[in-house]
Design brief:
Elements lengths: L1 H6 L15 E2 L1 H11 L1 H21 L5 E11 L2 H10 L15 E15 L3 H67 L5 H35 L10 E2 L4 H4 L13 H21 L5 E13 L4 E13 L7 H67 L5 H35 L9
Parallel strand pairs: 1-4
Antiparallel strand pairs: 2-3, 3-5, 5-6
Helix pairs in contact: 2-5, 3-5, 5-6, 5-8, 5-10, 8-9, 9-10
Length: about 450
């Protein structure tokens, strides 16, 4: 039973930075992870990308200004005539068939403003805004998940160290029992088999202690990892009592509507709806107003001129081989896909909440039972030691009593940490923050 209990020693998940000998609290560890963990940084970059996309879409409401220029020489009759007219040098003395080498330096500035494009800019802007909000919810999900993982890693590290303390105490007790048994064996009051049984049990407990120390060292390294920091050999000190952890309230609701994953999909649904509208806008006309100014300079004739032009252009997609209709169908299919994903997520989150609630109820019951069992096991072990010292108790019975005490002490440490971990999982399942400041 003892081996089975210790085999459950958690393989922890996450952990730390150049740490020094500072005493870590939950608040400090979570703040550090949110600041430098790569997952949180990547989520912030996604928001930046969405905001940049929104800025691109908003450019549709701004005038577009184009500047072009160039210099050319030609003896082509038609092009030469055009250059001549640009420079306002047309006259009866011009040989239209052989104008010679005509040059032209051209500079043109054009201002275009979109008056109507089938509602596509507005739809794309709505989609970009929804995408930005979805990215913000993604960051929120990462923050809540990361905070939960940090706290769970700290609890697992504390749990591993409490197991070490319990096993070290067990080793000391067994060592004292072995010393007493050796004296009784030398006095002819105990069989050698009983002495060997105590020594074997002591060795097994030392082996479990070695494994627990290794697991604690791994937990400490994982703590540095989840913080997004570079591992060092500096010791990691955890605060003995942490108000932020002790003050976690048990939720009284099963409402998970605030889960960031759910709200992110809701924003993606709005985004997909807007993209359908934008795709349908491809079948509507595109109307632009423009003003264009032009300057031409020629050195062959030594003339220059300016011109100004303005007006409205209308473009209408009569036939594009089904490309626009294909875009509409694609956008509609993606919208349906998001709806299905949203429905699936709602069902999945409901199941996750129920599992977390039952797991926390089970952890509370385990904590209550093991707390009472520890007191009983301590009293039983004290009585067994006293009887063994007087020679009124068999060695096997003493080993059983000490093993039960060690098991219950470890189980109590595991149950206390597991109750907090289960509570954190329950709060995260409901979309509630692990810490008030999140």
């Amino acid at each position: 039973m003892l081996l089975r209990t210790c085999a459950l020693l958690p393989i922890l998940v996450a952990s730390a930075a150049p740490l020094g000998a500072a005493v870590w609290t939950v608040d400090d560890a979570v703040a550090t992870a949110l600041r430098q963990n790569p997952d949180a940084q990547a989520a912030r970059h996604r928001i930046e990308a969405c905001e940049a996309m929104l800025a691109q879409v908003n450019s549709a409401w701004q005038p577009q200004i184009y500047l072009t220029g160039g210099y050319a020489q030609t003896n082509n009759a038609l092009v030469g005539l055009i250059f001549t007219m640009y420079q306002r040098n047309f006259g009866p003395n011009l040989n239209f068939n052989r104008p010679g080498w005509v040059d032209d330096l051209n500079a043109t500035g054009t201002l275009v403003y979109n008056l109507y494009s089938g509602g596509q800019p507005t739809a794309r802007r709505d989609a970009a805004r929804a995408g930005t909000r979805a990215a913000e919810q993604d960051l929120r999900a990462v923050q809540l998940q990361l905070a939960a993982e940090v706290v769970k890693v700290m609890l697992n590290l504390r749990k591993a160290r409490e197991q070490i303390a319990a096993l070290e105490a067990g080793v000391k007790v067994y060592a004292a029992n072995v010393a007493n048994a050796r004296l009784r064996f030398e006095a002819g009051q105990m069989l050698k088999a009983d002495l060997l049984s105590l020594e074997v049990q002591t060795a097994r407990t030392r082996e479990l202690l070695s494994s627990a120390r290794h697991a604690a060292a791994l937990a400490a390294r994982l703590f540095t990892f989840v913080l997004g920091s570079t591992p060092t050999d500096d010791p990691i000190e955890l605060a003995e009592s942490d108000p932020a952890l002790a003050g976690l309230a048990i939720p009284t609701t099963r409402d998970f509507s605030q889960r960031p994953e759910l709200r992110r999909l809701q924003e993606r649904l709005r985004m997909a709806e807007s993209l359908v509208v934008a795709a349908r806008g491809g079948n509507r006309p595109n109307v632009n107003a423009y003003v264009s100014g032009q300057y031409d300079q020629g050195w062959h004739f030594g003339r220059h001129a300016e011109s100004l032009q303005g007006g409205i252009t209308v473009e209408f997609n009569v036939f594009d081989g089904g490309r626009t209709n294909g875009k509409v169908r694609q956008a509609a299919a993606e919208l349906a896909q998001v709806k299905d994903e949203l429905r699936k997520t709602e069902l999945s989150l409901g199941l996750e909440v129920e599992r977390a609630r039952l797991a926390h109820a089970d952890a509370q019951e385990r904590l209550r039972v093991t707390t009472g069992a520890v007191a009983q096991a301590e009293e039983s072990a004290a009585l067994s030691r006293a009887r063994f010292e007087k020679g009124a108790l068999l060695t096997a019975e003493l080993i059983g009593s000490e093993s039960r005490l060690l098991e219950t002490q470890i189980s109590r440490a595991l149950a206390a940490a597991d109750e907090r971990i289960a509570l954190i999982d329950l709060r995260r399942a409901l979309g509630l923050p692990t810490l008030p400041q999140l």
